[in-house]
Q: What sequence folds into this?
């Protein structure tokens, strides 16, 4: 069952998928339509899941799930991952590789492999104050409060001196 992202309670579960490139407006429109269609039919053990989509900065696909009515099961999570994999193939994008870092470089959003981010930290090209996207957030409240944070407040801090 599809709902608006803003209507999800703060304790809703969140999955953040970062694209390895900026999506075009047309791609965002198509991905929004396909994802909303998927979420409308998404179920766990036959129960409709109350879910929502938000696409941020033409780069992040954020799926939220209100677990008060029904929680995602292993099968329903597998179905969502399979759906994300179909988007990856169709749009030639990488959404599931967690070994990449997305961060602000000035006013622009940069996407780098973790090894390159570590090198940038060593070379002082990024600092503890560089704003990173912490895609490990688990709830809507964490997403709203701790998704875009200085690296010193995220798991990225281990690479910065």
A:
């Amino acid at each position: 069952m599809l709902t608006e992202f803003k209507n999800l309670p703060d304790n809703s579960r969140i999955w953040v998928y970062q694209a390895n490139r900026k999506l075009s407006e047309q791609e965002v429109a198509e991905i929004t339509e396909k994802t909303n269609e998927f979420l409308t039919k998404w179920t766990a053990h036959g129960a409709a899941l109350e879910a929502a989509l938000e696409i941020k900065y033409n780069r992040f696909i954020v799926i939220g799930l209100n677990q008060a009515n029904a929680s995602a099961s292993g099968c329903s999570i597998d179905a969502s991952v399979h759906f994300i994999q179909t988007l990856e193939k169709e749009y030639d994008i990488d959404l599931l590789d967690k070994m990449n870092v997305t961060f602000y470089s000035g006013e622009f959003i940069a996407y780098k492999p973790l090894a390159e981010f570590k090198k940038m930290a060593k070379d002082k090209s990024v600092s503890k104050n560089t704003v990173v996207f912490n895609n490990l957030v688990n709830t809507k409240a964490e997403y709203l409060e701790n998704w875009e944070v200085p690296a010193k407040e995220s798991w990225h801090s281990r690479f910065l001196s």
Q: What stands out?
A: The beta strands are 13-18, 43-44, 47-48, 50-56, 60-66, 100-105, 108-113, 131-133, 148-150.
